[in-house]
Amino acid sequence: MEWNPETLQFLSQCFLNTLSPLPEPRRRAEAALVEASERSNYGLAVLQLVAEPSVDEQIRHAAAVNFKNHLKARWAPSPPKEPNVPSLTPISNAEKELIKSLIVSLMLKLSPKIQSQLSEALAVIGKHDFPLQWPTLLPELVANLVSLTRANDYVSVNGVLATINSLFKKFRYQFKTNELLVDLKECLDKFAKPLLELFKRTVSVINQAVASGAADAATLKLYVESQRLCCRIFYSLNFQELPEFFEDHMDEWMLEFKKYLTVKYPVLEDSGNDGLAVVDGLRAAVCENIGLYMEKEEELFQKYLSGFVEAVWSLLVVSSASSCRERLTVTAIKFLTTVSTSVHHALFERDDILEQICQSIVIPNVMLRDEDEELFEMNYIEFIRRDMEGSDLDTRRRIACELLKGIAMHYKAKVTEKVSLQIKNCLALFAQNPEANWKYKDCAIYLVVSLATKKAGGSSVSTDLIDVENFFGSVIVPELQSRDVNAFPMLKAGALKFFTMFRNQLPKAVAMALLPDVVRFLASESNVVHSYAASCIEKLLLVKDEGTRARYTATDISPFLLVLMSNLFSALEKPESEENQYIMKCIMRVLGVAEISRDVASACITGLTNVLNRVCQNPKNPVFNHYLFESVAVLIRRACERDPTLISAFEGSLFPSLQMILANDVSEFFPYAFQLLSQLVELNRPPVPQHYVQIFEILLLPESWKKSANVPALVRLLQAFLRKAPHELNQQGRLSNVLGIFNTLISSPSTDEQGFYVLNTVIENLGYDVISPFVGHIWVSLFNRLQHGRTVKFMKNLVIFMSLFLVKHGLQNLVVSMNAVQKDVFHTIVEQFWVPNLKLITGSVELKLTSVASTKLICESSTLLDSKVRGKMLDSIVTLLSRPEEERLSEEPDVPDFGETVGYNATFVHLYNAGKKEEDPLKEVNDPKQYLVASLANHAASSPGTYPQLIRENLEAANQAALLQLCSSYNLSIV
Question: Which SUPFAM superfamilies match (predicted)?
Answer without folding.
Answer: ARM repeat
